[in-house]
Amino acid sequence: MTLLKYGISFIVCFFLTTGLMPIVVSMLKKFQIGQFVREEGPQAHLKKQGTPTMGGLVFIFVVSCFFTVFLIYSQANIEYWLPLYAFIAYGLIGYLDDYKKTILKSPYGLKAREDISLQLVFSVPIIIYSLNNNFAGYNILFIIVLELLIILSVVNSVNLTDGVDGLLSSVSIPIFVFYSVVLFSQGKIYPAIFAVFMIAGLLGFILYNAHPAKVFMGNVGSFAIGGAIVSLAVISKTELLLLILCFIFVTEAMSVIIQVAWFKYTKRKYGKGKRVFKMSPLHHHFELSGHSETQIMVSFTVIQIVCCVLASIIYFL
């Protein structure tokens, strides 16, 4: 009966997200809340200018409502509110960034110091939880620095990956499948249910975000996903597996770091900056190499699934 209840909740969550998407897309168009496309990006993306964005608010709303009902109804321990907190808190950072871009018409959104400051502030409850449950007895300063590095790396690399239609949703779903299985095996039912709701919400969203995208999730969605992944890693004590689980995100982030570092180095040494990739993050390099957005989405998702299977083997063995 319990599995049936969870299954029905998954289905309702999926169809509610799917049903709300056309309504929200229509509202975003009405209020002209559209994507701003920078000219220095791939030229093929210029036609996406004005496509409705901030669609991530839909799956954030649906998942948050469903999970809140489960927690209240079940009188769950306070620790199991952590995924919901991280999901909404980091989604708020993305929302503020999107708000400045779409409503206030600021092309760069939040300033870097504002962005990082908010990420640091919102990381405090996650770090406190980790110190009390994951690393009791270890050097406190070392663990704080380590957790901050993990949180900032995951959240920002997830955000970098959201640059091709359907890509971020498709590569995130296998990660939430992994956490739903691992957390169920640990007996941590409520975080596992949260992961299941995330799968349902993203599946409902990707129907409108796959190429050609009718709506983008915006930073509100990508930051929320990053916060959700970090919180589940902390609760399941699998932070070290994130290097494998988030291989696509790590690769995307490293491509940016390598590109910027090499450009600055060659410019300083030779007077003219050189590039390793045609464009970074990495998905843009493949775009400019002639691969379609759908090909990139499918290829990256297959790699992500393999990484999640490998992480599962390591964890369960």
Describe how the helices and strands are arranged.
Blueprint: H1 2-30, H2 56-74, H3 82-102, H4 112-122, H5 124-133, H6 140-161, H7 167-185, H8 189-209, H9 218-236, H10 242-245, H11 247-270, H12 282-288, H13 293-316
Helix pairs in contact: 1-2, 1-8, 2-3, 2-8, 2-9, 3-4, 3-9, 5-6, 6-9, 6-11, 7-8, 7-9, 7-13
Describe this protein's structure:
The chain has 317 residues and is mostly helical. The protein has one domain. Helices cover 73% and strands 0% of the residues. It is built from 13 helices and no strands.
Uncertain ranges:
none
What class do helices, strands and sheet pairing give? mainly alpha
Number of E-state strands: 0
Shape: globular
- Mean of all residue-level pLDDT scores: 93
As for the number of domains, it is: 1
Query: In which range does the helix fraction lie?
Result: over 70%
| Gap between N and C termini | 30 Å
* SS element count, helices: 13
- Please summarize the sheet with the most strands: none
Rg calc: 19 Å
Amount of beta strand: under 5%
Compressed to H and E, one letter per element, the order equals HHHHHHHHHHHHH
